[in-house]
Amino acid sequence: MFRRFQRFTNQPRWLPFAEYNLWRNPFGELTREERVELAIISKQERALCVLSQLEAVQLIGDCGNGKTTRMLAFHQQLPDSSYVYLPEDEPCPSIPVGNPILVDEAQRLPRKEIKQLFSSGMPLILATHRDLRKRLQRYGYSVKTITIGEGNTTEHVQTVLNRRIEASRLGPGPIPKIGTDEASRLHQAHGTDIRSIEQELYHQFQNQVSHHA
Amino acid sequence: MPKCKLDLTLDEPDVVHPGGGTISGRVEVTVDKDVTCKGLEVRTHWTTHGRGNIDIGSEDSVIIYQGDWRAGHRATYAFEVPISEWPPTYHGHHLNIEHFVEARANIPWAFDPKASQPFQMHSTKHQGSGKKSSYKQGGFNWIGLFFAFVALAFFFNAGPRLLNLSSIGVWFLGGIGLIVLVFWIIRSVLPKWALGSVSAELDAESYCSGGIIGGTISISPRKSVQINGIQMTVSGEEKCVSGSGSNRRTHRHTLYEGKEQLAESMILNPGHPNQFPLGFTLPGNAPPSIDLHDNEIQWSVDLRIDIPSWPDWYISMPIQINPEQ
């Protein structure tokens, strides 16, 4: 249960989440910019992504573990980089030139594009559901693999969720927090799938607000 | 450390402002270091929040000050900025729409300080025309059914040769075709066969919340047919899309559902059209229809004719709900 707070005098009474000192449900969808801003990237991950020619990093993990969020954050932090998302059941978009080139959902790269991209020797960061190490090595790449989700510990889950609540703050004063026990329960129930945790919390929070309204 | 801090106060924070109008207030600037402000901009913008991807929009900004601020300086600037005409403020389950006034000071070589305040907006913008919308379903389509069977028979007979498929492939694809055909017959053909020609007409394609949906449903059966009743259902739902590509998901939430029995159990006779008037009063707080790319509020009128021991006849007609004037 999320704790309600006394309203500050200047907070609008008609806002449904104002009693929690929030302007929105913190577990809803975010803009691309907000996702980048709230991404938590370790120093090791950051260091691994400094690449030169014929070097590649692949981020492997299941849906909802934070691959796209990390890719967007890397793209923002590396000014010369380019980013492309490969949609499902649609023609492959042209791969933009960058240093490095970030390809999201890289397991969807068609044969022709793989040949063209991998033979370019450009530094690559690939988010993928399938291990592309052997294919990259065939083109002379040295490959580092980051398994996304392994670092999604209870503590990480708690930090991610509390940052999302903070990003929805309405004004000064206390806001609800996810405690260690709640983070541990969510981690046990959903594993490393942060998207699924956010969906549960969205409904929990929404129902609580509707109930009090 | 920020060189300056902005505080934004609205003149009427609890008033519901009309869409397309203006909103006024003041920005208080507190400066603790000498700075040059290239523009103190104020504008209104709206954003969705909730389960769907974020849709946003904004009005043109107004520059209310340009120049130097000295350390220790404290100044207040009044503003009056335009408000978008659409969409109105809305708080639902999957979808919320919020309007803000935002002030931002453009300071060179520093993070731009900003402040914002939410406000409520009520739109009076009307969409859709007032003309009638008609939906007609003709009688039993013997020709369509005949061609469907011919096409299926041809596929089973000549499919392996023409499409270079194995017989298992032909049976698999043919089986899917057969299931679709059976579904179509149950859903569409059988009710028409029993009822003959059915036409439904709404007296308008757009209504206001609290208004009355009128119209008629007309049934011209080829022979006497027993029905259990005719039901009219008016429903509104939030439809929000999140993610993209393989992560794309659609979230639906029913906002309102009201039913009206238009006719009880009776026998419909051939020879002349059996007409039944439609009548339904929309709730006064019905939220308007909204279409913001990934976030929508949709309204529809569904008509169902319950035929005993037979598939029901059914039609769904989208309608537009406009905000109250």
The neighbouring-strand order within the major sheet of chain A is 2-3-4-1-5
Class based on secondary structure composition and strand pairing of chain A: alpha/beta
What is the residue-averaged pLDDT of chain A? 88
Q: How much strand of chain B? A: over 45%
Helix count from the secondary structure assignment of chain A: 8
Shape of chain A: elongated
Gyration radius of chain A (Cα, Å) is 20 Å
Poorly predicted runs of 5 or more residues of chain A:
none
- Report the radius of gyration of chain B as a whole number of Å: 29 Å
According to DSSP, the number of beta strands of chain B is 22
What's the helical proportion of residues of chain A? 25-40%
Percent strand of chain A: 5-15%
Q: In which range does the helix fraction of chain B lie?
A: 10-25%
The poorly predicted ranges of chain B are none
Largest sheet data of chain A = 5 strands, parallel
Q: What is the oligomer described by this structure? A: heterodimer
Task: Give a short synopsis of this structure.
Chain A has helices spanning 32-38, 43-48, 67-77, 111-118, 133-138, 154-166, 180-190, 194-212; strands at 55-60, 82-85, 101-104, 124-128, 142-147. Chain A has 213 residues and is of the alpha/beta class. The longest helix of chain B is centred in the middle third of the chain and has 29 residues, at 167-195.
Description:
The complex is a heterodimer of chains A (213) and B (325). Chain A has 213 residues and is an alpha/beta fold. Helices cover 38% and strands 12% of the residues of chain A. Chain A contains eight helices and five strands; from the N terminus they run H-H-E-H-E-E-H-E-H-E-H-H-H. Chain A is elongated. The mean pLDDT of chain A is 88. Chain B is of the alpha+beta class and 325 residues long. Chain B has two helices and 22 strands. Chain B has helices spanning 142-162, 167-195; strands at 4-10, 16-18, 22-31, 35-50, 56-58, 62-69, 74-82, 90-91, 95-105, 114-122, 133-137, 197-202, 206-208, 212-220, 225-227, 229-242, 249-263, 266-268, 274-281, 290-292, 295-306, 313-322. In chain B, strands 2, 4, 5, 6, 8, 9 and 10 form a seven-stranded mixed β-sheet that branches. In chain B, strands 13, 16, 17, 20, 21 and 22 form a six-stranded mixed β-sheet that branches. The two termini of chain B are 48 Å apart. The model of chain B has no long low-confidence stretch (mean pLDDT 86). Classes of the chains: A alpha/beta (213), B alpha+beta (325). At the A-B interface, helix 8 of A face strand 10 of B.
